[in-house]
Amino acid sequence: MSLSSIRIVLVETSHPGNIGAVARAMKNMGLSALHLVRPKEFPHAEATARASGADDVLDRAIVHDSLQLAVADCGLVVGTSARQRHIPFIPVEPRECATHMIASAREGNNVAVVFGSERSGLQNAELALCNKLVTIPTSDVYSSLNIAMAVQIIAYELLLAARDSVSRMERDEPLATADEMERFYRHLQTVLTDTSFRDYADNGQVMTRIRRLFNRAEVDQNEMRILRGILSAVQGKRPSPGTQ
């Protein structure tokens, strides 16, 4: 089932009880893959207590040192945020985003839904790893959501989307993983440096904007091979040092 390819990723969760509550919300909706990035306290008795029967989700949880490692094998990475940052994404709502995530999972991709810390959410460097941004609509009077509530809403929409028999046309190839995208960005940065490209108009933000562009595009593995081939060809055409 496509839900098995979808993971919930919690970044720097400060309260262990929230981890347990998230595990319970996940299991209610058929999700089982929980990944934790630098949790303050885990494992912890309060996490187990709040899981309330979802101990198996906690037992299988994987702890990572960085978000990049947590999503390295994912073709689609969705960040969650209550607000937009500098160079904003065009946010989508949970129902639309869930349909897209399920379709991507059915195409054979691992999918990550990333939630930031309770206090500050996802930071710009973390959002730079995401292909999409999902925002849960709330009342203007009181918009604060507990992290477990937010996970429950997204998980519910994923369950509904997974039950829907209508899916998008499958891709010919799976999406490039987050790790492959990072290697592409490093390759591109090297080529820009080698060709003396200068960011005259964008105040040092060109790579950030390039990341946004390619993350939105959801590059598949064949397209990635083409892009890397173009960069290698550019490098091969560069004159040797000292030649004219």
Brief account:
With 244 residues, the chain is of the alpha/beta class. It is 45% helix and 11% strand. The chain folds into two domains: 2-163, SPOUT methyltransferase, trefoil knot domain (Alpha/beta knot, 3-Layer(aba) Sandwich); 178-237, Orthogonal Bundle (Helicase, Ruva Protein, domain 3).
Structure description:
- The chain has 2 domains: 2-163, Alpha/beta knot, CATH 3.40.1280.10; 178-237, Helicase, Ruva Protein, domain 3 (Orthogonal Bundle).
- It contains 10 helices and 6 strands; from the N terminus they run βαβααβαβαβαβαααα.
- The protein has helices at residues 16-28, 45-51, 55-60, 67-70, 94-106, 124-127, 147-163, 178-194, 206-217, 221-237, and strands at 6-11, 33-37, 62-64, 76-80, 111-115, 132-134.
- Strands 3-2-1-5-4-6 form a 6-stranded parallel sheet.
- The termini are far apart.
- Residues 165-169 have low confidence and may be disordered.
Features:
alpha/beta, Alpha/beta knot, Helicase, Ruva Protein, domain 3, 6 strands
* Number of separate helices: 10
Biggest beta sheet attributes: 6 strands, parallel
| Amount of helix | 40-55%
Strand content: 5-15%
Text of the CATH class of the largest domain = Alpha Beta
Describe the global form.
elongated
The CATH topology of the largest domain turns out to be Alpha/beta knot
Give the secondary structure arrangement, pairings included.
Elements: E1 6-11, H1 16-28, E2 33-37, H2 45-51, H3 55-60, E3 62-64, H4 67-70, E4 76-80, H5 94-106, E5 111-115, H6 124-127, E6 132-134, H7 147-163, H8 178-194, H9 206-217, H10 221-237
Parallel strand pairs: 1-2, 1-5, 2-3, 4-5, 4-6
Helix pairs in contact: 1-2, 1-7, 5-7, 8-10
